[in-house]
Amino acid sequence: MAGNVIELGDAEFQREVLESSEPVLVDFTATWCPPCRVIAPVIESLASEYKGRMKMAKLNVDDHPVTPEQYGIRAMPTLLFFKGGKVVKQIVGAVPKAKLDEVVRQVL
């Protein structure tokens, strides 16, 4: 995915998410997951809209299994919203853009 969504690995998670000064949405995703492919353009769109106010990132659970295990990720997509290094909201599954936008605004 090009654009404003950062691709994370286990190695970057601490710096990019937990130590981030701005809130972060992390999309725990997998290449084989159809709902993940559905929600990816929605997250990319929101990343453009909220650039500079909220960081958007994705982490492939198959390539980087340590972080998903730490957060108990069992279904894809799972979206975790971090603020101040802590999980403040969670969405499991593909949701409409309006719902995702609503949660982003709550976190901000």
Automatic annotation (TrEMBL):
GO annotation, biological process: cell redox homeostasis
GO cellular component assignments: cytosol
Domain of life: Bacteria
Domain Thioredoxin: 1-108
Cysteine disulfide partners in this protein: 33-36
Single GO term (MF): protein-disulfide reductase activity
UniProt-recorded name of the protein: Thioredoxin
Gene name, Swiss-Prot/TrEMBL: trxA
